[in-house]
Design a protein that fits this description.
This protein is mainly alpha-helical and 136 residues long. It has one domain: N-utilizing Substance Protein B Homolog, Chain A (Orthogonal Bundle), CATH 1.10.940.10. 75% of the residues lie in helices and 0% in strands. The relative contact order is 0.14.
């Protein structure tokens, strides 16, 4: 697994944890993971960038996901799928140094296969591809 994949998976786990403990700060949640898991400094740095980016741009990220998913409200989406798409949407639309869009989508699909349901990968792919096509 590459370092960015590892960062994205850590970010997903922290975001998922915060769904059930919204009062915990990102830094505190990340430090909890740091105390339990070993990873290279670059992995933690990119996970931190992703988490801060999602937190900073959450409203715009959720608007983009909602616009790309006409038949699904965010409340109906599985939390795992939604948080995978939040991370990828941050990278696609708001990152100062964005990775190649197709690489972002491919990573999100692979993470969906690992953490989601049988339908997660295709659902995630469809929404993220729509976001990619409509991005400025």
């Amino acid at each position: 697994m590459g370092q960015r994949r590892e960062s994205r998976e850590i970010a997903l786990q922290v975001l998922f944890q915060r769904e059930f403990a919204p009062d915990i700060q990102i830094e505190d949640a990340l430090n909890l993971f740091r105390s339990s898991f070993e990873a290279e400094r670059e992995v933690w740095n990119y996970a931190t960038l992703l988490l801060r980016g999602v937190a900073t741009h959450k409203e715009g990220i959720d608007e983009a996901i909602q616009a790309a998913s006409a038949h699904w409200s965010l409340k109906r989406m599985a939390l795992t799928d939604l948080n995978i798409m939040r991370i990828a949407t941050f990278e696609l639309l708001f990152s100062e140094d964005p990775p190649p869009p197709l690489a972002v989508i491919d990573e999100a699909i692979e993470i969906s296969k690992k953490y989601g349901t049988n339908d997660s990968a295709s659902f995630t792919n469809g929404i993220l591809d729509q976001i990619r096509k409509t991005r400025p």
